[in-house]
Amino acid sequence: MTNTADLATRYRRVLPSFLSPYYAEPISIDRGEGGYVWDLEGNRYLDFFGGVLTTMVGHDNPDVTAAVQRQVAKVMHTSTLYLSEPMIEFAELVAAQSGIPDARVYLTPSGTEANDAAILLATSFRKSSQVLAVRNSYHGRSFQTQAITSHSSWKSTALSGLTVQFVQGGYRLRSPFRDLDDEAYTDACVNDLVQLLDMTSAGDVACLIAEPIQGVGGFATAPDGLFGRFQKELANRGILFISDEVQTGWGRTGDHFWGYQAHDMVPDMLTFAKGVGNGITLAGVVARAEIMDSIHVLNFSTFGGNPLSASAGSATLRYVLEHDCQANAKAMGERFEAAMRPVAEGAPWIAEMRGRGLMWAFEVCEPGGIEPDKARTNEFHEACKRHGLLVGKGGLYGNVIRLAPMLNVTTDEIDEGVAALTAAIAEI
Ligand SMILES: Cc1ncc(COP(=O)(O)O)c(C=O)c1O
Fold first, then answer.
1. What is the reported pLDDT for 158?
2. Which of 247, 248, 272 maximizes ligand 1 atoms within 8 Å of its Cβ, making it the mutation to test the pocket?
3. Distance (Å, whole) CA 366 – CA 373
4. CATH of the domain at 108
5. Which portions of the chain are predicted below pLDDT 50?
6. Could you list the residue range(s) of the whole structural domain that residue 330 is in?
7. Residue 6 has what DSSP assignment?
């Protein structure tokens, strides 16, 4: 019979070396239920990462599982060449929730393709190949989305057909403006954006793409309102704003349904992926009709809007709305923060605990400063595993521990996670 060690050997033999499983001794995940997963040997872990914020409302969520099983038995694939109710119904639900007026929804299999489509739309609509992104961003693995990624450890190429410039704002801890208060920091970033546009752009820029909270970047969080201020400057020049909600959507931030809502603005487009299929591949871009319909040739994604994915999406979204998962994210996030803030403040090597709702990060540095400490981050990660807790890593220097519990996480699970983290921190 297969065991975990066996799988590790086979993984390394057949998968590319740029994929790297977590932990010195990688773990297998054989099955999951609610907030927990089990490995092949039957060890149980509390899952506070959800396969990178993607299992969102619990493993084997009965509503989602039933919807998928019903759809599997009916038809698994149609394509957009035919009318498929699951696809249309899911698009209707997303359009209604998006906050974008006269919304059109283009469905894709991954977040990368959603962002690629958004950039295609913006550059076509604006007839410009100039794009702005935010420093410390991650937007995907394809050729174009790598060009708008500002993360040297995740950037496989500098080649691109786009002219991309990166603005200040998303990652405050390592910004030259970090010592300013919220208002002054926001002013400094807005002034920098304006100067960049005035001094370095060649006329009409197509768009700015931003993550309201930078995911891979270690849940780096700009002050509320910053992106709204950016949008005012951009809108004056006709430049579009794309909100990459791949990690921040569906109520995860607690205070809002979408990350952009913390910034007192409505974007021209938003992109989504990860959690909305609760583990089934599903992503897309929402845009105003005038932008979406600016493509005048055929543009087709074989798996985009697949009925299986779409039925998982509608079931997940309905679950989120009917169970008010946003309110749960807020309440559980507050409980988590109240318990963890004093523990983090007592560890001199945790330079910053940041986040909101059910997105929390600990940036690990040399005590007393912001020199990244990757070795200690790995120790922290391993210690969490020993205490039965799965968490993620991230950050520009791989020195951030990230947590994203399920949106329907319970108080007992939060308390169990806090106990595991506290014990792990004490051990280091
Ligand atoms: C903010 C953000 N955008 C886009 C992507 C790319 O999504 P995918 O991995 O589904 O292609 C990711 C993936 O981590 C992400 O975090």
1. 85
2. 247
3. 6
4. 3.40.640.10
5. none
6. 4-57+324-427
7. H
Beta strands 163-167 and 130-134: pairing type? parallel
Q: For 306-323, how does the pLDDT look when each residue is reduced to its tens digit (9 = 90+)?
A: 999 999 999 999 999 999
Among 273, 299, 322, identify where a domain stops: 322
State the DSSP code for 42.
Answer: -
Token reading at 330 = 């807020």
Q: What is the pLDDT of residue 386?
A: 98
Q: What is the identity of the amino acid at 423?
A: A
CA of 154 to the centre of ligand 1 (A): 12
Last residue of a domain, one of 322, 338, 367: 322
Please give the order of strands across the beta sheet that includes 350-356: 350-356, 359-364, 400-403, 392-394
Please give the distance, rounded to the nearest whole angstrom, from the Cα atom of residue 343 to the centre of ligand 1. Answer: 31
Residues with CB under 6 A from ligand 1: 52, 110-112, 115, 138-141, 211, 215-216, 244, 246-247, 273, 283
Amino acid 227: pLDDT:
98
Q: Using the mean position of ligand 1's atoms as its centre, give its distance from the Cα of residue 73 in Å.
A: 30
Looking at residue 236, its amino acid is: N
If asked whether residues 135 and 271 sit together in one domain, one would say: yes
Residue 150 is predicted with a pLDDT of: 94
Are 80 and 213 part of one and the same domain?
A: yes
pTM of the model: 0.97
Number of compact structural domains in the chain: 2
- Do 237 and 254 reside in the same domain of the chain? yes
